[in-house]
Structures are given as structure tokens and as C-alpha cells.
Amino acid sequence: MAKCAFLGLGVMGGPMAGWLVDKGHSVSVWNRTMTKADAWALKYKGIACATPLEAIHEAEFIMMCLGDDPDVDAVFEQIEPGIKPGVIVVDHTTTSADLAKRIAKKCTSNGAHFIDGPVSGGEAGAVNGVLTVMAGADEAVFEKAVPVMQAYAATITRIGDVGSGQLAKSVNQICIAGVLQGLAEGLHFAMKHNLDTDQVLKAVSGGSAQSWQMENRGKTMVAGEYEFGFAVDWLRKDLRIALDAARKSGASLPVTAVIDQFYADVQKKGGGRWDSSSLLTRLNTDCDTIKDS
């Protein structure tokens, strides 16, 4: 079993760190809000630390699950002096590939290793320990980390070298945004024609239009319920990263760019914390009801 540090105990990080304990690993944690770290330690029998540097003191693996590039930069700056040779740093935050490459170089200069391993599967995937990890890393380093990541992930795929995991996560988010917009428009069309949406969803989900989003979010979208995890604010952050990378590479993402602005409309409606299926609200302004959380 490994000695692990987990930095960031949000809706994803908290359960992920909990699974490490459940699988027998020794885990020290840190969170910006110390009360959250204390509550986690009480629940999972881990060790809550006051600073990131304290948390990584004896760690063989350092996991981060934070918010955005600046958050990762700030936390890594605090832990860099304590990173020992041979340690493997795994960043599960969704960030830019440029950041991943920059931190990897800093790890290498300390004799340590780095994996960019953004995750997919949402809060439910974290709680159930069945996340998908898209990893960018040296192959030998990746193989050493897989048994540890299996505590909270069902699918772990090495995409390529450092940075490629983050680029693969952008692919994931680009696809999700497109599917959700299509689903929102389809449901809007059905509602405007007074169709029985339950019957419509039953019919089309049995054919080629079927998707995870349709199966899991179709009925809640019709009901105006948008409290199911991945927030619009976070998806817009991810789409910003994808669009920035596209501009640098010359990739064309015309639909993604438009949908990103649709999500901006949802934010203007006060929906920044609604889940990402809330695209329907900008179409159904006359008949959609948002239920209080």
C-alpha cells in the first residue's frame, strides 16, 4: 500500500481521497477550508493537514484535484520545496496542457515525476469510485501509478506524453457540450409541439440518438431540475481551455464556440451553479421552471 497526499477535497476530491483510504492506502489531506479537511479525516480516518507542504511530507504519491490553472500553480508553488526524488505527482484537475508541461519540468528538476490525469464521470463517478482517468505521462511512471488510481477509477487510459491527458479531456468536454445542446433543442422542439416527452425519450433513446445525457438528464431537463453535479461555471472553464488550445493549434471548433456563448447566457440567468444540462433554460424561457435546491 502507498503513502498518499491528496490536495483538494471538493465534490470530486473528497470521495476520491476516501476511496484511497478504503483500499488500504495511508492518506494525508489538505483543503483550503480546514473544517472540510477535518470533517473528511473524521469520516475516513485519514490525516488532515494545515498546509499542502505538511500533507506531502512522507508521500510517495501526491494527488491534486483543484479548480483552475492558477489554483494548481499556487498549490504547487507551496509543495515544490518538499517534493522528493521518486515521488509521483498526479494532477486530476482539468487544466491547460501548457500548465501540465510546465509543472512536469519542475518535477523533473527535483527528480520527481508528473502525470496529468483529468477525470470524467462527475460527482457520481467519484462517489462510486468508477471515474475515468485520461493520463499524460511517461509510460513507466504511468504503470506505477495505475494501481493507486484504481482505488477511485474504473477506466485509466494513458493517452500519451505529459499534456495529452488534458487535451483528451478537452475532447471529452467538446463532445459533451455538443450532445447537451442537441438534446436541449430536441426537447425544446418536443415541448413546443406538446408531445409527451416521456414517450418521446423512450422512443428516441432506443435508437441512434441515444446518449448517456439523454438517459440520465432528459427527464430532469424537462422537469426543470438542474442540481446534478457538474456546474455550468466549471464547464465554461473547461471550454475556455479547449478553445484556447484550439486557437494555438489551428483546430476549428465553431459549434463549441457558439455553445460556450449559450452557457454564458445561462450564467447571465443566474445559472452558473446549475448543472450543464441547463442549456434548455435559454430555449424554454416561457415554460421552463427551475426548482429550488
What does this molecule look like?
Mean pLDDT is 95; it is low at 287-293. The relative contact order is 0.09. Helix 8 (164-192) crosses helix 12 (254-268). The chain has two domains: 3-160, Rossmann fold; 167-282, N-(1-d-carboxylethyl)-l-norvaline Dehydrogenase, domain 2, CATH 1.10.1040.10. The protein is α/β, with parallel strands linked by helices and 293 residues long. It is globular. It contains twelve helices and nine strands.
Question: What's the quick description here?
Answer:
The chain is 51% helix and 14% strand. With 293 residues, it is an alpha/beta fold. Strand 2, helix 2 and strand 3 form a beta-alpha-beta unit.
User: What's the pLDDT, averaged over the residues?
Assistant: 95
Structural category = alpha/beta
Number of structurally distinct domains: 2
The CATH topology of the largest domain comes to Rossmann fold
Oligomer: single chain
* Number of E strands: 9
- The fraction of residues in strands falls at 5-15%
Please describe the biggest sheet, giving its number of strands, its sense, and whether it closes into a barrel. Answer: 6 strands, parallel
CATH homologous superfamily designation of the largest domain: NAD(P)-binding Rossmann-like Domain
For the terminal residues, how far apart are their CA atoms? 40 Å
Q: Mind telling me the C-alpha Rg? A: 20 Å
Order of helices and strands: EHEHEHEHEHEEHEHEHHHHH
Which CATH C-level class of the largest domain is it? Alpha Beta
Overall form: globular
* CATH architecture heading of the largest domain: 3-Layer(aba) Sandwich
> Number of helical runs?
12
The largest sheet has its strands arranged as: 3-2-1-4-5-6
Low-pLDDT ranges: 287-293
Tell me roughly what share of residues is in helical segments: 40-55%
